Amino acid sequence: MKRRDTGILGEKLARAFLKQHGYHILETNYRCPQGEIDIVAKHKGFLVFIEVRTKKSLEFGSPEESITPIKRERMKTTASHYRQTHDNLPPLWRIDVVAVELDQNGKLSRIELIENAVSEA
Amino acid sequence: MQKPSFTEEKNLEAQGYHRIAGVDEAGRGALAGPVVAAAVILPCPIEEPWFDQIEDSKQLSPTKRELLFHNIHQIAISIGIGIADNEIIDAQGIIKATRLAMKLAINQLSPPPQSLLIDYMLLPEVKLPQKGITNGDKLCFSIACASIMAKVTRDHLMIELDRVYPGYGLAQHKGYGTEKHLSHLHRLGPSPIHRQSFKPVRNMIEK
């Protein structure tokens, strides 16, 4: 499986997982000049920006560890961009990460939701 | 030299406005060509490496202005440009024509602004909270960006118009009343894009 396919499969699994957990998905692959966010959703009165990190188990590090400080900043900027260009949004927002791990055959071996993974500070 | 700040933007944000358009014009005093207005909504917070280079467009070199024009284009939430040509200026007067250009620029913004910061004037016909700021292009970041967008857009337009109406040197002076422009005007008479209601042009016709 190619890297890109891994990503697409991961996002598909993540969307299904989020829906099961009560997330109402507003948009996927939101782009602005400063970056991209995989999923925008509403969840219990929060506006949530979700980054999906997909990895195959044998690669080093956990999926959530692969978010660099630069990526973190870009996500925050992109989240601000979304909030600025859309109206009637919940005032509270956060950034979550869904970590998806696949085995060598591309089967799901772990999926986990990390709420508020990228803090405001 | 004071740099434009975010004081006004921050005040409006604190009041709950998150799409604030800076509005400015270029070419109000020129003898030829249109008046061009720009309205710019910037991302907030804005963190760009070129950010402290923003100044009143008149203080910047043409090269730097051009660079910043592209930078602003890349990151802006939305940009609107409005143009009122010399016929509108002659028919309605420069103030009305400037207001019209500004309104056209604001109407182009999508998503629409929630409040306006305008250089020097107010637009009572536009039903949005607004503030006119004297020297806004020097003091207020969003207006300074709008002044760059308006100025560069108009400069490009005047370079085009120089090809259509050669001989006046429009590409160099952009229609402003420089000595060279006046001498060309004297020699050739006014072109179809000269503002006949402006005194130096009118004097040429009456002669």
Describe this structure in words.
The complex is a heterodimer of chains A (121) and B (207). By secondary structure, chain A is an alpha+beta fold. Chain A contains 2 helices and 5 strands, in the order H-E-E-E-H-E-E. Chain A has one domain (3-114): 3-Layer(aba) Sandwich (Trna Endonuclease, Chain: A, domain 1), CATH 3.40.1350. Helices cover 29% and strands 38% of the residues of chain A. The model of chain A has no long low-confidence stretch (mean pLDDT 88). With 207 residues, chain B is of the alpha/beta class. Chain B has helices at residues 7-14, 62-75, 86-92, 94-107, 136-139, 141-164, 170-173, 179-188, 199-206, and strands at residues 20-26, 35-41, 78-84, 115-119, 130-133. In chain B, helix 2 packs across helix 6 (141-164) and helix 3 crosses helix 4. The A-B interface holds A 32-34, 73, 77, 80-81, 83-87 and B 18-19, 41, 43-45, 47, 74-75, 77, 111.
Tell me the distance between the termini of chain B: 44 Å
Poorly predicted runs of chain B? none
The overall strand count of chain A is 5
The number of domains of chain A is 1
**Fraction of residues in β-strands of chain B:** 5-15%
Indicate the percent of residues in helices of chain B. 40-55%
Q: Could you list the spans of chain A in which at least 5 consecutive residues all have pLDDT below 50? A: none
Biggest interface and residues each:
A-B, 12 and 11 residues
Number of domains of chain B: 1
Task: Please compute the radius of gyration of chain A using only Cα atoms.
Answer: 14 Å
Mean pLDDT of chain B: 94
Known CATH architecture of chain A: 3-Layer(aba) Sandwich
- Please tally the helical runs of chain B, counting DSSP H or I stretches of 4 or more residues: 9
| Oligomeric category | heterodimer
Major sheet strand order of chain B:
3-2-1-4-5
Query: Roughly how many Å is the radius of gyration of chain B?
Result: 17 Å
The CATH class designation of chain A is Alpha Beta
In total, the number of strands of chain B is: 5
Overall shape of chain A: it is globular
